Amino acid sequence: MYKVRINGKHLYAIGSDDGNFIYDGEKVSIDHQQLNGQVSHVLYKDKSYQVELIEHRKAEKTLLLKVNSKQYLVEISDQYDELLHKLGFDKAASHHIKELKAPMPGMVLNVLVKEGEEVKKGDSLVILEAMKMENVIKAPADCVIKDVRVVTGDKVEKNQVMMGFA
User: Fold this and answer.
1) pTM above 0.70, yes or no
2) The domain boundary residue, chosen from 67, 92, 117
3) Which helix (H) or strand (E) element contains residue 87?
4) 7: Cα separation from own chain's centroid
């Protein structure tokens, strides 16, 4: 089962059981037809809906959907997210991060951001070569780049600070 929050307000439990869609504990009949990659047609309780996927952020587990010309922000959580929340670990992830450290020793192949630039969680920041493999280092949270402490060609050690966040 998943918990789904719509526009930060309405909370629903959804899931599936033997091919049946479950909505707040009850089996629901939905007719679904994929029109193209991002647009679907849905029939529910004799009503027709055109559903378009505008944006999908996997890391944040969010969808931005347009249903019959109205946009909805959908936040999804599963049993593991609920467990982390109960244990208080979700709060630890929301703390402000001040620095980006090298996860391994290697050589900086490319710095993809500049000082003062705003980045979103998951945006690529640095390409680091380690053990003949290119590793894309991504932003751990939404933030602003305060300072960049490495340039292309720099060799870095594990836990060396590569950039600071404002």
Assistant:
1) no
2) 92
3) helix 79-87
4) 16
**How far is the C-alpha of 157 from the C-alpha of 149, rounded, in Å?**
13
CA separation for the pair 77, 94 (Å, rounded): 16
Amino acid at 61: K
Q: Could you tell me if 140 and 79 are in contact, meaning their C-beta atoms sit under 8 angstroms apart?
A: no
Model confidence pLDDT, tens digit, residues 74-132: 999 888 888 877 776 655 455 567 899 998 999 999 999 999 999 988 899 999 998 88
Q: Where are the beta strands (DSSP E) in the chain?
A: 2-6, 10-17, 20-23, 26-28, 30-34, 39-44, 47-57, 62-67, 70-77, 99-101, 106-111, 118-119, 124-130, 133-138, 143-148, 155-156, 161-165
Paired tokens of 53: 């996927």
- Look at the chain and count its residues: 166
**pLDDT of 22-32, one tens digit each?**
888 888 888 88
* 127 shares a domain with 78: no
Structure tokens at 165: 């966040």
Q: Tell me how many domains the chain contains.
A: 2
